[in-house]
Fold each of these.
Amino acid sequence: MSASRIVVVGSLAFDNIETPRAKVDLAVGGAASYFAVAASFFAPVAVVGVVGRDFPQAELDFFKARGIDLEGLEIADGQTFRWTGRYHENMNLRDTLDLQLNVFANFSPKLPAAYRTADICFLANIDPALQLKVLSELERPRLVAADTMNHWIENAHDNLVKLLKRVEILVINDQEAFQLSGSDNIIRASRRILEMGPRHVIIKRGEYGAIHFSADSVFAVPAYPLEEVVDPTGAGDTFAGGLIGYLAKQPEVTTAAVRKGMVYGSVMASMVVEDFSFDRLRKIDESDIEKRYNQFVALTQF
Amino acid sequence: MSASRIVVVGSLAFDNIETPRAKVDLAVGGAASYFAVAASFFAPVAVVGVVGRDFPQAELDFFKARGIDLEGLEIADGQTFRWTGRYHENMNLRDTLDLQLNVFANFSPKLPAAYRTADICFLANIDPALQLKVLSELERPRLVAADTMNHWIENAHDNLVKLLKRVEILVINDQEAFQLSGSDNIIRASRRILEMGPRHVIIKRGEYGAIHFSADSVFAVPAYPLEEVVDPTGAGDTFAGGLIGYLAKQPEVTTAAVRKGMVYGSVMASMVVEDFSFDRLRKIDESDIEKRYNQFVALTQF
């Protein structure tokens, strides 16, 4: 079958990033950017988001060259969302040094008419009220997946609970799963989240990979061990891009498909952290993806 | 083929353990105990160690009932080694509250004549000088595996380096690997340790499983996710027991055998943490091991 179209809503940003070994300013980032670029290797992607007038035309051209539909990308007066962060020596830890929402502050997603029939939707980490709004504008998606973060778990709990009833796949990190569920045991946490609505809970564990829970399956995939992680920013959204991109090519969201999708998500994440921004993904093609996929097979088979 | 005989040298102890949810005194522990009980499900095991007169006859009888050869277990005047520890809410972390070496203080391993022809040797975490002494008393082992800890890496570095030249499989945890190698990247750390002698480096990562490096292979196995970990004490030694026990049944230490052995090690470790001491292993049989092994297949296949 041909791949279903994916609509993604989320942030596009400039990131100023300092790691223990390097520093970069104005790297293109944001959850929707990372997701869209990763997913575009598998399926057609359409973006809903906002950037300022300072967003480079060359980057918009890169998205278009990857077949990413930008009709839903608003270009607003003002500056693009900016995040400044510093990673610890242990790159699982980072501090946000500065956050300027800029044009993102008043963002209200609007779906172009052509997006409303999309089969698949990824609601990246934004206010659950906006995630719900996007969902209400879609006619009949066959797959809805979402991410969220501690801020919304604390401050938008009711809308998040409402959203979860309509989400098939929730992709969050371990700390968020513990916070959302009120349990610090990964099995009990997942079971409680499954009771909140999603049929699949996928928990990201940074350098240790990801683990999946559904009613009848548990699946763990390790992260690909790398000699040098240049920049972990966007790894989670890139993982989601590979996962949902792979699923867009499958006729059904079976457990087997979710497992393979998680491996493709891990493949894409393992490549994106090899450079700043999604620069690594600018240089790869399908054969690099298949090669890394085979390395995951070799990494895990016994 | 029938399984090769394994000689293990290491501690036998009484543990006083406090976890966030329970407390137990005088639990039978020690690296050699955990290793021997786990390995005994796969191969004949012979123990070299020392206990005091206070060590219960019922426990010695349990070892014997599992086919464990105790000819090399010295019963000395005085008290058995005692360790008192408290686990944090995050059970990957623990504090040693008290340590009484007792009869272990003057322990000098002596191999009974019948042990010298053993094919396989596991040198559990003790002074590298004693590990070297045991090794010198073995005629021609086909497989030597070892563990160590931060204390010896700091304080017995020269003997440890000497030992590593003669070890085929080193089983240590991630922090020890970083300390031993001087690198905090798991690939660079493993490469440096491989240069020190071992053909296989297996790094234990607690609740995240274990990862194996050799010249031509990287293999990662997740830990089995458990709803309740009662007591993580001895998980690493139990892992080593399952691993080396499995290898004792194989004609050669191939990469494929090491991978399967790591899964069996993970199987045994996932069961031992379900109760204090190795009480869980008192209640299982080969069919429980195969059942959990199949759960590992289900956990990891895609």
Amino acid sequence: MEKTYTIDEAMVVAIEEAKKGIGLVSPNPPVGCVILSPKFELLAKGHHKVFGGNHAEIEALSQVDNKSDLEGAHVVVTLEPCAHKGKTGSCAMALSKFKLASVTYGITDPNPKVKGKGELILKEAGVEASRYRPKSEFEYLIDELELLIDQFKVNILEERSFIALKIASSMDGMVAHQSGQSQWITNSKSRQVAHHLRSIYECTAVGKNTLLFDDPKLNIRIEGHSEKSNKVLIIDPKGESVGQMNNLNLTKYRSPEQIYIAVGEDHFKKVKRSKFSILRCPNKEAGLLDLEGLSKVLYQNKIFSAFVEGGAFTVSAFAAQNFFDRFYYFVAPCILGSKTGVSWTKSKEIQDLKDKLALRLNKVEVLEGDVLLDYSRLYQKNVII
Amino acid sequence: MEKTYTIDEAMVVAIEEAKKGIGLVSPNPPVGCVILSPKFELLAKGHHKVFGGNHAEIEALSQVDNKSDLEGAHVVVTLEPCAHKGKTGSCAMALSKFKLASVTYGITDPNPKVKGKGELILKEAGVEASRYRPKSEFEYLIDELELLIDQFKVNILEERSFIALKIASSMDGMVAHQSGQSQWITNSKSRQVAHHLRSIYECTAVGKNTLLFDDPKLNIRIEGHSEKSNKVLIIDPKGESVGQMNNLNLTKYRSPEQIYIAVGEDHFKKVKRSKFSILRCPNKEAGLLDLEGLSKVLYQNKIFSAFVEGGAFTVSAFAAQNFFDRFYYFVAPCILGSKTGVSWTKSKEIQDLKDKLALRLNKVEVLEGDVLLDYSRLYQKNVII
């Protein structure tokens, strides 16, 4: 007898499928789809593989050779099937051609223009379509489903780029010695994971100080990863790096137009015309960018996500402006001491403990002694947990 | 057919057994024991339940009604069976009375006086006795076995008390606002776990500032936990709390002699005779205790472990002296900012990054959004990881 699946179990598989598309489908969200036979055996599964390619539902449908097998079948998909004809036609329409017994989707489309419309198309075709309601032991899947579309949601609802921060520090939050001395604090396994994270966001960002001090390559170095060159973003309010860029490692690994330099309005005019992509960003105050403004400028330039890797000054600026979407915190098993260390929140101040910046823990990964804590920002301001 | 066990699987069960004794058997180590039949079926299991009570091996043996069942049996125990007649007689001798096929023990007795002697007694009686060698997938058990005896080892080998630190902070290592404002940063689940940790160490310690500022009870509040009052230790180099102790909450939950106050040699004479237990401790410098010296004084006073809960000044002093054995770090999902926050390493300084204090990660526990990172100190000084 073949293995049968509950809807919850099928959703676990659909999420695994969706994850295969992370980093490959932006600005679309990663989506996974599972088709079960009338007897709840696995008929097909698929995921959205590449922007412009088939959606997950179409991928899964294409796996079923004999379309008559779809009569009475159950479709489980991580996101509401799309109602609008985008690059590839409406998935809700495609699904409604078959006499499916049910369609269960993980999350309603966050796009207000199409929200609920996919479900409606299916219902009108006589298919029992509904949002996924997990049994209690599968409730954690809701968070996973939400996390799959975190970038998409920010892009669609706020028309800005998704900002992920990464910091690697000692247990007491120190990233370097005040003397300026700095070295790898985390282990090679952590650095490998960090390269993987680089690969799933559209550009890698650092501050001007890190660029000029470390002269990093910022390319993606993972075994088996294609040598596709990645975009980089330099956060440089005064445009000080522009004149030096030609001599830096960055330029060896990508073309000049893949190097974006975010400069404040107050210094924009002073920056000479250049072959690099100079972005004009609003200022927070003189010499400091408005980082939410920066994320909108990125979006307008079709950069839908950024992975900000530091240094301390830059990450601290995002923390001080309470502005970012996701936070990857690598904690090394050591203590440096704050009396002589440089903290990754050195420029963040609050007036009162109730003004603390609250995050939500997504998951924890142990990396051979290091720990990766993965958080999302909570959007309610002034929340006391 | 009854379930059979490999030696590795039996060791997992023996470790589970041993854990039941944590916090109850000090200054003995917690020990667990499993007996398998000649066919490797479970015959009995047992653990050391209380100081002065039966050792684990004797507990397990007592579960076997028909002693002839022990012929050809396999004993798996977390620690080398003791050779010396302590309070309860030698376990190695007790085991050697039966025609066992094998005895596998997790760790050699760290006590240099008896190390290997338990094995020798068994071998002389014709029992195949040897130290546990895990298959590769069970190699993690070696760390667990070592962790079971971490206190015992420090007590036996260094003749000092085992020092566990606990700190609860924001992600960026802040425990309070510089204005002095402070509040619970971690959630109720974390605080519950902290109370459990209190219960497994022999005394709960805080610094003088925390005592006078917070007026804590420091008792053990866990559902189902007996109301046994616990010892407390106040780290108070100048003895400033002694005169005020009578008015504090501490005294409502324990007798005066259960309240230990560690005072530096340089201030010891100024402290008036008192009904509380005043400990005379060596100084590191004027007004600051030598914390390793304190741990020796505790040992001499038959306090074999201490759980140091803060505040920032006290934990920071331990970090600055590179002196502690275990570190429980509760990380709350929030950022406070180091510009206006108080760090738990505020008094720690290093000259060079290579002087960082290296720890070993034992385990990670997710506590409803908070995270508990459990570390041990690495003893090699100046280790660069």
